Amino acid sequence: MTGFREAQINEDERGRTTSVKPRCVQACVILRLSHYQCAHTVSLTTRICCVLSIFTSFKLFNNSSPIVTGTSVLALKYKDGIMMMADTLGECNCLLYEFFLSNSCATINLIPVCRLLSSLNIIHCDRFIRLTRYVQTFTAITAC
Amino acid sequence: MFKHLQRLQPVNDRTLIGASGEYSDLQYIQKLLENLTTTDFAHADGSQLQPVEIHSYLSRILYNRRSKVNPLWNVILTGGIDQTTGQPFLGLVDLYGQS
User: Fold this and answer.
1) Which positions 49-68 of A are in contact with B (Cβ < 8 Å)?
2) With contact defined as beta carbons under 8 Å apart, do A110 and A65 qualify?
3) Which CATH class for the B8-93 domain?
4) What is the largest CA-CA distance in chain B?
5) What's the ipTM?
6) CA-nearest residue of chain B to A87?
7) B90: left (phi over 0), alpha (psi -120 to 50) or beta
8) What residues of chain A lie within 8 A of the CB of B88, using their CB?
9) Residue B44: how many CA atoms within 13 Å on its side-chain side?
10) Every domain of chain B and the residues it spans
11) pTM of whole model > 0.80?
């Protein structure tokens, strides 16, 4: 196993090379028999290919490290429609972690959104004002 | 750092999606939805996909990719107005396909 990990090249479609996380390697080794076939059929949609030197035609699927991420999207459902709001900032190094107090900058769930809602009454906070510079999208759909 | 990433996108006249997480995965999803809308338009029957149907489609896409151990790293909100009932709809799908 250790030899495999060191021999792998993980390249995304932007051509960056990163190392494969051991967790994903294990998952893919376990599943390699079932994924061997679909590696050819859906190769158009693969974004990360890894060719092992031993399994020469085996392509490793994983998407374990997001690169450019955005933060939470706020959406409200009210009587007459839906309102959605998102900022336009994409961050490479998860620096938006502190803004929305979410558990992970790559995922949102209802809890950070609720925290965001509760934090809207501290709009004079410096961090939020800095964030609002990037808020330019404010879209509403109302019932006709 | 990118300051002008558009993370909200209208799918059709009554549906809007917003996504967090990996931006290139969102672009892939936008491409899929564009194809879906084009196919729907090409039927030329005057009907559009409802927000519930878009939400269901996205949850299947994300669950399918999760089952291949190659998840699309997004959490997607789907909102819109149902055409027949006029009721607003809001749905959430995460990268495991949970909705």
Assistant:
1) 61-63, 66-68
2) no
3) alpha beta
4) 44
5) 0.81
6) B7
7) beta
8) 77-82, 141, 143
9) 1
10) 8-93
11) no
